[in-house]
Request: fold
Amino acid sequence: MNLRNWFDTSFRLRSDEPALEWKGATYTFGEIDARSNRMAHALSARGFQRGDRLALYLANSIDFIDIFLACVKLGVIFVPVNILYRERELSHILSDSEPKLFVTEKELPALRAEAAAQPADLRETPLDGESPAALVYTSGTTGVSKGAILTHNNFAVNASNLLDAWRISSTDRFLLALPLFHVHALGNGLHCWLFSGCRMRLLERFEHEKAAAEFLDFRPTLFFGVPTMYVRLLDTPPDTAREIGRGMRLFVSGSAPLPAQVLEDFRKLFGHTILERYGMTETIMNISNPYDGERRPGSVGFPLPGVQARILNEDGQEVPDGETGELYLKGPNVFAGYWRREDATRSAFVDGWFKTGDIARRSPDGYYTLCGRRSDLIISGGFNIYPREIEEFLMEQPEVAEAAVAGEPDHRRGEVPVAYIVPRGGDCDTAALEARCRENLASFKCPRRFIVVEKLPRNALGKVQKHLLGAAAQ
Ligand code: MLC
Ligand code: AMP
Reply:
């Protein structure tokens, strides 16, 4: 089965029912189906065929959904791109994925006009579940960012699992404010909506000043967020929070660690225990706290149905419960490999098990807890940052002799990047450096502080000792 077959349950059986609220208008499932059929015809008219790639650089919108669904229906591989990326970050993704079309705001009016003139029905493209549906680029260093190939089956297994695990049904009202270009909103958000046939209100983005009002206006039962959103929601006045909590059924958190204190403060304020789960671009969702039973603070719960997990030490031996090691995964949710990177794909798997790079431990009663990462990764507001990418950019700047970037704890965003700079003689104008970062890097990657140091702390092998950077700045 391909994703269209799965979506047809909502498109056909619920065709007259409200599906999507977007910018004050409401669209039925029948309308969503017809809009994407028209868009599919428009893409076909531009020569799109099964297996071609379409890259999209758009904020959340109904157009994003139309184009994604059109690609699914045609067997075109959808390549969502983070809209915070700047030219430098985009060029690698575009040269690697070789899209037939790169859709930006500029391109959109023409595409919309072409779609408007097309018929509302569409013949089915023969596609099986193993066909690639999307290439989602991991946030690696420049030149190393890899396109994870996610198949129709990967998305389908994920959505079926989540509907079951989180009891999502057509009676839910779902508020989605996450960016659609990442798997959190794309894999979980859009697919849970279309699989369940529930009513979704889509926001262009999460704006913390307006979040409570949005909850009160839409009265959702279901919300997916990253921890930063929950931290922001803690500013809600108690009466409003109670009112929101009364209508809600389930708050889910993921993409970054949810501090136990935030879970506890949120429970007191909203009267709900957030359900934390764990996923990755390459696997969509893996492990989730239970809907019934204990949602354990700091833990991500149990493997979802069909997902096998094991924790291995450096020698490849399984560790006993309670001990930490690297988490390996296997299951129908695991991606088909990296786009045109056989070497990277080969080294991502050991005996068919995917190496997550996450360090975890399992409790004797089966709960998994994430304890860190093997690699140097900063997660800020749910966006991943590889320090090396920022360090490479900084080192290209004439006034910088050496640079190291490290994560600093931040109450709201979990972590933020901080840069330590050894200047190339004389003074270093950090404001000018910051301005260049802003121009060339996605906003969340720009160091929040620039600290000038005389030298970087290095070990005997010359490797920068990041944990000593703070001391080097004293
Ligand atoms: C953030 N910014 C955006 C934006 N989100 N700009 C445009 N559109 C968006 N959707 C920029 C802002 O310009 C600002 O930049 C900075 O990011 C922080 O924004 P803020 O206004 O201060 O918001 P804040 O309250 O801090 O909240 C940020 C946030 C955002 C939580 C709304 O970080 C966010 O949407 N995160 C979701 C990331 C996500 O979906 N990750 C899933 C990855 S998939 P500046 O610098 O100018 O201040 C994955 C797998 C899994 O990890 O398990 O799910
Ligand atoms: P990405 O590459 O953007 O898909 O990010 C995936 C990474 O996010 C995982 O490998 C984890 O390190 C992290 N992650 C996702 N969910 C959680 C969670 N609930 N707690 C801690 N880290 C998480």
Observations:
- The chain has three domains: 3-205, 274-373, 377-472.
- Residues 290 and 349 are 28 Å apart (CA to CA).
